[in-house]
Amino acid sequence: MDNFKDKELIQQVWDKGLILPGYDKDAYRADHCGAIIQRDMYNDTSGPLSMGWEIDRIKPLSYGGTSDLSNLQPLQWENNRKKNEDYPSWSCRVKASDQKNIYINKS
Question: 57: domain range?
Answer without folding.
Answer: 7-103
